[in-house]
Structure formats: structure tokens, C-alpha cells
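Q: Sequence in, structure out?
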Amino acid sequence: MVGVSDQTSDQTSGRQSERRAAPVGRPLLSLTLAAIMDDVGAHSGAVYLLAPGEQVLEMAVMAGLPRAFAAPWERVGLSAPVPVAKAVRDRRLVWVGGEEDMARDYPRIAVVLPYPFALAAVPVATERAVYGAIFVTWPGTRPAELSDRERDHLTAACGRLALRLERAAEEGHPVRPEPDLLAPASAATVAGTLGAVEAVRMVARLPYGLCALDLHGRISFANASAGELLGLPVSALLGSHLWACVPWLNDPLFEDRYRAALLGQQVTSFVALRPPADWLSFRLYPSTNGLSLRISRARSAEATGRTGQRPGDGGSRLVTMSHVLNLSGALTKAVGVQDVVQLVADEIAPAVGSQALVLLGSQGGRLHVLGHRGYPDPHAVERFDGMSLTAQSPGVHALSSGVPAFFESRRQMERLYPEQSPTQDGMAAWAYLPLIASGRPVGTCVLAYAEPHHFPADERAVLTSMSGLIAQALERARLYDVKHQLAHGLQAALLPPSLPSLPGIEAAARYLPATRGMEIGGDFYDLAPTPGGAVAVIGDVQGHNVTAAGLMGQIRTAVRAYTTVGQPPEEVMSSTNRLLMDLGSELFASCVYLRLDPAHGQAVMARAGHPPPLLRRPDGQVRVLDLAGGPLLGIDAAATYPTTQVSLAPGSVLALYTDGLIESPGADIEEALARLAGRLTEIGDQPLEELADALVRHSGTELERVDDVALLLLRSLETGD
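A: Exactly. Output:
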């Protein structure tokens, strides 16, 4: 059935199976796809339809290439980073002009299909709803840009298909997946395939081997020389895959060359060793309905130079490898545990047809739910949380034994685990995958299916391979989360938990760690009362790591101590500078220190290589304070730090900040400072807490930061406010 994505609700919904269904007279999807490919000269393509009730695109028909080429993307989540999903999300044509574009924009696809080809993905949508998407591909030899004619043909054809799907949905007609458009050659009609009988006789007399392979890689013709070179009778070759019937060619490297030839429509070649010492050269000539293979003897020196390795004894099929490569590329983006959970939900579950998943970890002799997705009732996973590792349950058994378990039906599960009521989650089939990393169990991944599901051997192998990658990502993610919590705890301990309430002064502060690295840094601020006023300080220790944070804590403590003993601002800065030199640290620090006297409306400031503060006067005018000062702390033990006196009329706002607020790669500092001053002019009358949020948000550092950000706002009030 066709799934529908309504633009207003952004939800998919399927037509109920009870509705009247009238058969479609012609294969709508196949004919549309064939016409599109013919119009734009594409050599392969596929139609995707939205799955009923799911945010998933399902491949309904493929043309021009075996479906195995797109195996990792037969089911695609709408949030997946692939062109067809992006076309649906953005409701526009997506163009990938070649290998470089693919590597830049869709690196995970480029890892699995590192071949020269171009691709266009187009949504199948009306104004009211999205029904799916179509992609088509061209050989890499085509122009890098899509012409206006091709663009118009693609969008118009997809628009017409969307209208027909809309009509079919309104009438209750099911539009089902259709047979793929492939026309493999028949081994029984050699003359019809190769031409006249005399041509066949001529080919049979050639001293080198010739084979014809269909789009699936099956041999439809082979001459006698091919059989002699491969060491098999021609009768054993016909109808077989070359790398399956010839054991020493059963290596993914050689099948990869076949895929490269078909997808890129370019001649490819490889050299292989026929045991014990015969090197053979294979050259593949592709067309849109298969390819021709020429086999000849190769010199060993040439072979050694062109291969660099001997074929393996067997190895996984490339379909399995493509799934694993796709997942491997996806998991490189996972940072925390929830990232891993979301990635498995978005990428793995749709690809294998699973509707729900749970990631389980173990701690203190019990299972714990690390995350879950897809269950209609989220409380169904609570039975896992806190389960003893001695319990008789499939989750515990998979974790403790390291052996995956597959249950194809409720009946099978209930027969093996009758006491655990494992089917109360509403699902009908399950895969329990042990997550083993560095030789030890780190958890269990549970994939659940809404309907009974058969797990053939190759699918079990794929899932088992994927579980190892998930385990490694999960172990890294858990370590990251622990480090992240430690970093935030340390940072919180080093910064003031809150700002004091002071007479004549209103204050607000913000601290944002860098989004790269450990998310901990050396930016700091402080505000403390003194007899007759207050002192404020803001600074930035070089770097954003534990060393910088530790040094920041020492500097902040030193400033407080020197203030407490009554040193004036210039001496506080000089004493802190000498302390930093005595500590022998190789890090430097910038700082602004000021003593506030709200009763007299004044502030005395000293600066050590820090960005200048901004002062907003009551009339809204903003001035950059060009303070006197000295070099960065920690450079010169004899440095002095002269002070500047600034008037603070009631209603004035003083903005102290670190360079992370205004600096970003490629940005001009002066322009960024001017924008900050302009923003302060416009909205400086807002309540201070709202103003602090707005300034951070306007700076563009709210989500992505290469450096820490600290901001301290001080507003002078009427005495007695």
C-alpha cells in the first residue's frame, strides 16, 4: 500500500486494508520509471513509496541494476542522510553531480558505492501530500550539471505520478511494489544474444576467454577458452555467478569491479591469481543490459603490480559488506549513548524492517534500558530495567552468552520463555543481538517486529556483523557520556553557583562550553561584594581542557584572595600575574577586573589583554571602553596594569565577555564587535536575564562553538532600588 505524508500534519498515514481495492490495469510504477529513464537518458533508477503508518520510504521497484546495489537503502527513514529522503524532506529535486559531490554531501553512500555516477532524487508529491520519491542515475561520464530540460522532465513526470497515486488513494486502489525492470540474457538463446551462428563459431575459436554476464552477474555465454582458463567446463559456468562457481574468484574485491563497471558504465579490470601460480587478467565491458568479460593470461610482474594481494578463501557477499559499511559510516557521527540509539532507530531498524528497538546495558548485576524507540506503549520496555542478570530471559541470555537469539513468532518466544511474558510489548518477532566490544559484553540490542519475521542465514549474518559495530559505538558513547558529565561537574564546581544580590547592581551571567573537545574550558567570571560596593572579574585561560579549567580555578581564587586583603585593582592584577608565573604554567590568561562603587556611580577597571567591555548608557548609546592595561597574565612578571575610571549612571549596562562570544572562523573581529554593540543598543532595555539570552543567541554561538563563551552583564540601579 502507498503511505501518505500530509504536509499540514507531517505524519504518514496508510489507507486501511478494509477499503475497496481495484487492481491497477498496468504496472504504473514500472512504466513511469522506464519512461523517465528513457526521457533523460538515465541507466538505472528506483521508485520509493512511503510505508503506511511509518516515517519510512520503501523501494517499490528498481530498474537497470540489481536491487542488491541498493540493499542498504531498500528501506530508508525520512531523517536518513540520503538523497531520496532529503528530496522528500525538502520537497525539491536533489542533484548529486558525481563522486566528489557524493563524498562531500553523502559520505556514507560514497563509502559503500565509491564509483563514478551522477544521481537525481525527486519527490513524488502533490500540493497536499507526499507519496514517495524517485531516483535515477547516470554514468560518471555525463556533464556535471543537470540541464533544464532534464530537470523539467523529472519534476513533471514525478508530479504526474503523484496525481495518479493520489487518485488511487482516494479510490481505495492499492498500488503495490512491482517486479524490478531487469532483462537477463538467456543461456539457451546464445545465437540470438550474440548474433549469427558464424559469429558464435568465430568467438569459440578465439585464444582468449569471452563471457557474457547479465545484470545479476550470471554467466549467459562462455566460449571454450574461458572454460579452459577458469578451469571449469562451460556447462558448469552457464547460469552461475562467476565469483560463486570459481572458488578463487570468491572475493569481494572482484565483485566490486563488476559493480563499478555496471554503475559507472565504464570499462574496469582486475588481475587474479589462479592457484598455484597462474595470473589471469579480467577486463569488463559494460552496457545497460549486462557486460562482456575478456579473460587472458597476465604476466606475473604485471599481476603483482596491479593487485597487491591474493584473493581470499571466500569472504562475505558484497551485499552484507555494503550494509556493514553503511552502518560503520553512520556510527562515526554518534557521540553520546542517545546518539547511538537514535542512529540505530533511523538507519538500522528501517533497513531490516524492524519497527521498534531497545538498547540494554548492564551495571551492578542488572540490566538497564539505555534507550528505546518505536514502541506504541513506551512502558512496555520497563520490564527490562533492573532485571537481574540471573533471570531467565532472552536479553540476559544474549548478554551473558554472547550468542544472538532470533525469534520468528510469538509462539516460538513463549515456548522458550513462558515465565517472562516476553510478548507483552505488542510485537510478534524479535532479534536479540549481544553487543561485544573489546572482548567483553557491553549490552544487548533488541530489534522488534510488528509481524512474524523469518530470519534467513544471510540476514542473521548481517545483523550479527552490525551488532559488533553498534557495540563499539556504544562503548565509546558511554565513555563520552561519563567524560561529559565529569567535565560539566568540574566546570560547575569552578564557576560561581549563583550571583549575589547586591545593592545598586543587577547582574546576569552566561557560560557556554565549546561544542568541540571535552566541553570544558578556561573562561570564568565572578562577582563578589566588598565594603561599599562590589568587584567583578571575567577572564579566559588559554585552551578548553582540564588543565585550562584547573588553572582558571586557581586564578579565580587568587583574585578573590587579593581582593579580600584590600589590594587595589592594579595590584590585584599584578599579584595574579606573578602567581601565574610562579605556577610555571605554559598557559596564558586574559582578564578584566573592576571595582564597582554604585553609590557614586563609578567603576575602576584594569585590563590584561582582554577584549574591551561595552558600556550602554541610559540614552541607549553604546561605547566600546578603550581601557588602559597590560599584557596577558603569565607573560612578564614585571608587567604593570594601569587602571581606568568609568562613570556608571543609573540605568547603564556594562557588558563583559570573552572572545568566544565574538570570534568565529573567518569572521572579522571588528565587525563582530560592532554587531554586538548594535544589538546591545537595540535591546539593552530588556530585563537582564532576557538580554543575556538574546546576546548569546544573536552571536551565533548558541549551537556551534569552537571556543568557550562567558558573558557577565551588570546594570547600575538607582541607590535604594
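The two ends are 69 Å apart (CA to CA).
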